[in-house]
Amino acid sequence: MYLRFWMGKLDGLRLRLWRFAVQHVGSLLFTGVLLLAVTGVVAWHERGKGHLHQLQTQLQLQPKPVESTPAAQPGEKDPVVLQRAVLTGSTTPEFTSVTLLPGRGMQVLQIRASLPDRGEVDLLDAPGLQDAASQLNGKGDDADGSGSLRMGAALEAPWAGVLGSHPTLWQGHPLGDDRSDGGLLLMAKADDLSTSVMPDGGDAQATFNLKNFNGHWVSDTELTTQVLLSARVIDLTISAKNTGTEPEPIGLGWRPRFAVSQGDRASLRLRLPGGEVIEQRGGHPTGEASPLGANWQDRQGSPIAAEGLRMTLTHLQHGFLDTGPMVELRNAAAGYGLRMKLLTSSIQTLKIDAPADGRSITIAPQYNLDEPFGRQWNRGPESGMVVLQPGESTRWKVRLEIFPLESTAPALP
Description:
Layout: H1 2-49, H2 51-60, E1 80-83, E2 94-101, E3 107-115, E4 119-122, H3 129-135, E5 153-156, E6 168-170, E7 173-175, E8 192-198, E9 201-211, E10 221-229, E11 233-242, E12 248-250, E13 253-259, E14 268-271, E15 276-281, E16 284-291, E17 309-314, E18 326-331, E19 336-342, E20 349-354, E21 360-366, E22 386-388, E23 393-404
Antiparallel strand pairs: 1-2, 2-3, 3-4, 5-13, 6-7, 8-9, 9-10, 10-11, 11-23, 12-22, 13-21, 14-18, 15-16, 15-17, 17-20, 18-19, 19-23, 20-21
């Protein structure tokens, strides 16, 4: 009985709904047509203004994140930047950062310093990271790695400077490749790299397992570099170890190209250690040497002639209280000086190159003289190469200091 009651109620509801639809179908159709017409008019109006295309573009294109510029990787390895903060109110020049390239023999690409009333400045003649990465690509002018010698401060091994004619022989072993300048480290990639933050700067160490430099050297070599940054001092150390079974000659060096601010070389003064100047003939060392003029040891340094300066010093001397031979580059216009100390006795040679264009000054401390295996050295000073027996090591170390010119404070120990 109850089932029949509820079935009757349901049938009645369906009948009322059907009648409503029949009676109002015209209204429903009219409403739908009206909405379509209004939409068409609006679309035509907006198209005339160019808004429809904008609306379609906004609907179809989702916002995209801005793509960041790919990180520069000279030598296909991330650069290392050691940084430190300058204390507020500092009244003396301070180093702020060192940029290193572990994919290019741990080359020092840039050194930055903070100068009172001037802000941060670049101390080396070098492009920015992006430009450096595009130039140090191992192609064209850089196919042999020589692009590193045209910017920043390249580290050099297993010889520094110019090796000489190719092939060069040492005890019957051929040395070097077709390029004779700057060593074979320029394109080497670090096998191990570590960095650490220190209270007033940072430290970076890299190890290169160089073997026999792809067959271009006598024995296997492992090279370790270390760069230590602090407010007033940057220490650079290179250690070379003979890991092979044959004796081998080793020459180590560093070739920093210091920038001349706006080409104003007239404000610079250069102070050199005592020593002897290697005589040149036709661009080659003769093996003879003459004393360096005393004017270069003046406490305030000597100006660099407009026509430029190029010389190689040997038999370097140092003062009674100095820890090693010392070079100073004073910039009177900027109010600061750079002092380079040669802290290991094996550094026998100092090369100076200030081209006439006035853009940079190269001050390169190294073990060996140019063409170290040439016969001319039988008549003159030693060539400076260090011979390592299997398992033996040698260490090269240089300290770079920055100081205010108005200060009379003595050099750091």
